[in-house]
Design goal:
protein histidine phosphatase activity, Phosphohistidine phosphatase SixA, 4 helices, His_Pase_superF_clade-1, His_PPase_superfam, Rossmann fold, alpha/beta, SixA
């Protein structure tokens, strides 16, 4: 299985609610840079947090890749969700190439859990960072971090 983890692009600093923050112009550019890293890689599905900035990021990636499926909404991908809950939800899925679009601190802790077996050993994710993980199944400590792309550093 190949699991791609993408943090949303830069978002507005404020909105009525955190979940309503939209991408900035810079965040859109970041998301498109990360989408370019996915070009040529097959995807079976795209799942995103219900938060506006994650949905916008996922939709930009979907359009940039010409992905014909729709973006699925996963209520278990919000900033403060438990990475172990994410693993439980992933356990029943059958995609072999899946993109998750989410937030900090969840995404860093999830990557740490999958790669190192511990969510306290988090992987650093700035906005629009894209991680490529590979393994037989998404189980704590059994996936390998293949690549980590930070658009701000490119």
């Amino acid at each position: 299985m190949k699991l791609w983890l993408l943090r949303h692009g830069e978002a507005e600093p404020q909105a009525r609610r955190d979940s309503e923050r939209r991408l900035t112009a810079h965040g859109i550019k970041e998301a498109l840079k990360s989408a370019a890293q996915l070009a040529g890689h097959p995807l079976d599905g795209i799942l995103a947090s219900p938060y506006v900035r994650a949905q916008e990021t996922a939709e930009l990636v979907r359009e940039a890749l010409g992905f014909e499926g729709s973006v699925g909404t996963a209520p278990w991908l919000t900033p403060d969700d438990d990475p172990k809950d994410v693993l439980r939800f992933l356990d029943g899925r059958n995609e072999q190439n899946l993109l998750l679009v989410t937030h900090q601190p969840l995404v860093g802790a999830l990557a740490g859990l999958l790669v190192h077996g511990s969510r306290s050993d988090a992987v650093p994710f700035s906005t629009a960072t894209l991680a490529e993980l590979e393994g037989e199944v998404p189980v704590a400590g059994l996936m390998e971090l293949v690549s980590l792309y930070h658009p701000r550093h490119s």
